[in-house]
Specification:
It is built from 5 helices and 16 strands. Helix 1 runs parallel beside helix 4 and helix 3 runs antiparallel to helix 4. The relative contact order is 0.16. The mean pLDDT is 95. A hairpin with a 5-residue loop joins strand 3 and strand 4.
């Protein structure tokens, strides 16, 4: 059993580890503006909040609870402004039951993941199910069994290394659509109540929390470096391997890019939208966080976008509204990352891009 002195030493090591992670912010070559550094340090605090929820407060895989790993003030990996994200800790040694009502959310997808952000920056899919494939009751109710072998009408596979269950609720008109109600329980938990916190659990939680913050921050810093080199003012990441390895939804096609413009310039994207269930475009900062969609128009989707007469769409990234296309507000930024995604498409057109001068 760890003594109070041992725990104090572990706490100090945890704090020193967090202090050292500030190097991720100061050492990155894409931190060009004061806002980048300020948001970088804020990003680390946000990842810390998520990691504590994940590894401290909701880590018992016998008594899982849903918590949000991305939301308006805590963002990871080009979080979708049109999504509600729900995460739960699971174990490949258990079976689980999900139940609830779909209500009117257009797209509801659920996956089991092997969360290895703290190890090698991956979050491999170990099972997927989509609302298009659900068997629903007359009132929209459903039950899903999560298990290694097929069970029930709705089945979600789990693997020995599965450690997270991720729910994505995707909205087109969030103000008028009703989120799904979803609950989770372990079917074969060996205990009636959770184990009280002890020194070993605390030590494990602190180590995993620090590891998640570091692994996540370094993973997406590498993505920004890659996009700056390969997709500078472009958006043509046709190879999806990296995105799916990091936990991307296999029904989604991701077109990431890096943008940089002057205060009197605009970055213009023109594209044909394939036949799909959903699409949207969003603007992100260099840390792969969506910009503040609470107060700025930093994204559009298939419900809000205005199409051209020929059915194509023009997206205009600029500090002010140029009066044409679909304006995307830079929200005080001059560079960052961006993402165009569509769901359920069978073809994947590549957009054209250009930087233009704004009229004064």
């Amino acid at each position: 059993m760890s003594s109070t002195t041992d725990l104090r030493a572990e706490w100090q090591a945890f704090c020193q580890k967090l202090e050292g992670l500030g190097d991720i912010v100061t050492n990155e070559g894409f931190v060009d503006e004061p806002i980048d550094a300020a948001e970088g340090y804020r990003y680390l605090t946000r990842l810390l909040r998520v990691a504590l929820d994940m590894h401290m407060e909701n880590a018992d895989t016998d008594f899982p609870h849903f918590y949000p790993a991305s939301h308006a003030t805590a963002k990871i990996g080009a979080d979708n402004p049109d999504n509600i994200y729900m995460n739960a800790a699971i174990s490949g040694a258990r079976r689980y039951r999900l139940w609830g009502k779909r209500n009117t959310v257009p797209i509801l997808s659920i996956g089991t993941k092997a969360n290895r952000y703290a190890v090698d920056g991956t979050m491999a899919s170990t099972g997927e199910i989509d609302s298009a494939d659900f068997v629903l009751g007359p009132d929209g109710s459903f039950e899903i069994i999560v298990s290694p072998t097929r069970e029930g009408e709705n089945w979600l596979p789990i693997a020995a290394d599965s450690s997270m269950l991720l729910v994505r609720q995707t909205f087109m008109d969030r103000a008028h659509e009703i989120p799904a109600e979803i609950h989770i329980e372990a079917l074969d938990a060996p205990r009636a109540t959770p184990v009280p916190l002890n020194a070993a659990l605390l030590s494990q939680a602190l180590a995993r929390t620090a590891g998640f913050v570091e692994g996540t921050a370094r993973t997406f810093a590498k993505w920004t470096d890659m996009l700056k080199a390969e997709q500078f003012n472009d958006i043509a990441t046709v190879d999806q391997t990296m995105f799916y390895r990091a936990g991307g939804d296999p029904t989604i096609f991701y077109l990431h890019g890096y943008w940089k413009i002057g205060p009197d310039e605009a970055f213009v994207i023109d594209t044909r939208i394939p036949e799909c269930n959903f699409w949207n475009f969003q603007l992100d900062n260099v840390w792969f966080e969506s910009l503040d969609y609470r107060h700025h128009r930093i994204h559009v989707n298939n419900h809000t976008a205005k199409l051209n007469p020929d059915g194509t769409v023009t997206l205009v990234v600029a500090a002010r509204d140029p009066g044409y296309g679909n304006w995307i507000d830079t929200a005080g930024h001059q560079h960052g990352t961006m993402l165009l995604r569509w769901t359920g498409a069978k073809e994947h057109p590549v957009p054209t891009t250009k930087v233009v001068q704004l009229n004064s």
